[in-house]
Design a protein that fits this description.
InterPro entries: P-loop_NTPase, VapE-like_dom. This protein has 824 residues and is of the alpha+beta class. The protein folds into 5 domains: 202 residues, no CATH class; 118 residues, no CATH class; 128 residues, no CATH class; 203 residues, Rossmann fold (3-Layer(aba) Sandwich), CATH 3.40.50; 105 residues, no CATH class. It has 30 helices and 31 strands. The chain has a 5-stranded antiparallel beta sheet. A 5-stranded antiparallel beta sheet has the order 12-13-14-15-16. A hairpin with an 8-residue loop joins strand 13 and strand 14.
Length: 824
Amino acid sequence: MGDGPAPARGGLHLRELQEGVRALPKDYAIATAQGRRAKAWRNKRMAWDEFSAWMREPRRTPETAAEYAAMAKAERDAAKDGPCYVAGYLEGGRRRQGSVARRSMVVLDADSSDDGLWGDYLMLVGAQALMYPTHSSTAASPKHRLVVPLAREVSADEYVPLALKLAETLGAERFDATTYQPSRLMYAPSRSMDAPYELMECGGDPLDPDEWLALYPDWRDASCWPLPGCGARSRADKAPDPRGKAGTVGAFCRAHSVEEAIEGFLADVYEPCGEGRWTYTGGSSYGGAVAYEGLWLYSNHATDPAGGQLCNAYDLVRIHRFGELDAEAKPDTPVASLPSSKAMREWAAGLEGVSLELARAAADSAHDDFLAEPLEADDSWKKDLEKDPRTGAVLSSAGNIGLVLARDPGLAGKLRRDAESDAVWVVAERLPWREVPKGRALWTDGDDANLRIYLETRYGIVNKAKVDDAVSHFADAAPYDPLGEYLDALPGWDGVPRVDRLLVDLMGAEDTAYVRAVTRKTLCAAVRRAREPGCKFDHMLILEGAQGLGKSTLFSKLAGEWFTDALSLEDVRLPKVAAEKLQGRWIVEVAELDGMAKASIERLKSFLSTAEDNYRAAFKHRARGYRRRCIVVGTVNNLDGYLRDATGNRRFWPVRVTARLDHRRLDAAAVAQVWAEAAALEAAGEALYLEGDVERAAQEAQRHAMETDPREGLVLAYLDTPVPVGFEGYTAEERDEFWSLRADFGAGGDGAEAAAEPREAVSVMEIWHECLRQPATKPTRNDSYQIAAILKKAGWEPTGKTKKLKAYGYVKTYERGENAKPEF
């Protein structure tokens, strides 16, 4: 047992109380729940008298003490499960690592209690407290819960060293190794039906946390904490080596030590601060994360999401990279079933080192399978393998690798290249190391690793660069066009028209010639791009409608595995990024077009006009051209307008949809018939542009999709207000006087001059000063653009000329167009 501050029957110095430095707390933050599996916790405040009264009445459970002792652990856990608490405040009412905002009491579980614990507390500490037996306590093996209220609330970072120091003073060996965790739940008193219960209470003042924390040279320095009592060293020694675990966990731990994982993936989360120690950057203490043999890390930082747990390298990275995904998971969800585990497995499997470890493990476990491949009818080709004349070992030469890829029954003829997307495909039922779903799949980095393991296992061939070159060579020799094969394999069109009315029937679009035309031309463009990559099509069908109607789902069902919605407006700014996302796709959706800036619209229009993308792909040495084989579509939830250029919207084909997509009407057979009809229409020469009345209807749809400026009505009223003859020669003062005599635009007023003519020309400056009543400064470039957009939308056309006005000097003018006749 250690030495604490001299007991003061409450822990506060008399001088502090007399001088009023700190008032005693009137109540304490307590979070409560009805059981250990509760997701929602209730934050409240309780006076000490109220809390101690709660502790005086234990909940009685129906089993006897003897029956409880005979239960299996799971049964005992269920029997004692009931009302519980955390003596503090939980952020968001959720109990998880890092959610404790502050603690109001220290609560310690003494699983190795004895009759002297309470006496030691009274003698060595003496602050206000209570202690009660836990559900498992017996005369032969007493277990108690010590509750010590604090004179002030402490942070989670302060709580750990405070609780450790208190336990050290009383004998750390008495206490559970995990009892110091700020988020640890404690059960309210409960006992078996015949078990005795005695509550021990000590009056006085609450414990002064500052006095106890001052016992450290610096409480923030975790190297000063009495950590051996936490048992991390002992637990690390007893834990099985994580490198021996199956699957991705073991592979990751073999590929990365804890130190390497921190340096490679969590450098912004932990800072090194000495041999084998790190500081969690999100906390206020330091040096509290300790590594053991490169296999484990135990973090004593209370606010660390990985704190209070013995973590291997895999779990440490999982918690920090993907732990937020577990926010809605049930408390008793197995770790392997957590959303973070699924995300971690998928991410980790793509790392080169992990992929190689998985491949090696697969090769080890599948070695017999490799050897058990069906016997070849003719294996005479193996005599042509080049061998080392001294040892007879097969050489790792390009010729040998090529011969194996060409003749080995597990590999021969299974690699093909999609010339348009440059991707390598596996076209076979299986590879020696895995089954191939649907008889075809993309060749992955994992396949590269497995192939190298296979060649080494079966033939002793080891040469990564030559193996990679051979894969590329043999794939190039066997062109593959999965999209073209899909179209070629379509059934004949059954003659039932579906294409024109697809949006009408499935999504409640208005049945107009325009809607039918843009639906037809979009689908025909998809077929033509598949048949003739890079053919001209610079239009974009945009589905407008409320969220949740299934706009994206429609495109996904039509394009199947060749659909993506991963392209964003931000990607369009980066041509290579955008182009890479098009490869291997047929329909590409740009979602969330709401609120496009003018620059975004211009970039998008330029992007739509591109028929071939030229760039150097990742891991390639030279740039090449990729002809576009896809169409680009859009979706938008904002029904208040999203286009901003009144004259440059011809590429956009907006269609308003109102009904939720019925998935049952678009099964695989229906999709096949839609494409069969579209293919027939395309083969018949369907034009991919609009003309005549349909083009004019498109312009009207584009106008309705324009973003609405709240000043539009005011400007239109101003434009329709007649002005006196000779108004162009008015000075600024005369113009102000003219407009001031009108109650509002479009009406006369007392003393108003005779208004003899409608306005046929106007400038941005006039609208800025006279309509919008702005100060005598020039409008900004953005202001001018917005006013010009209102004019264009209203049918006013720029003349490209300048005119001199007495009030404003030389200005650029707009003239009233055919669609902008005055309404008076």
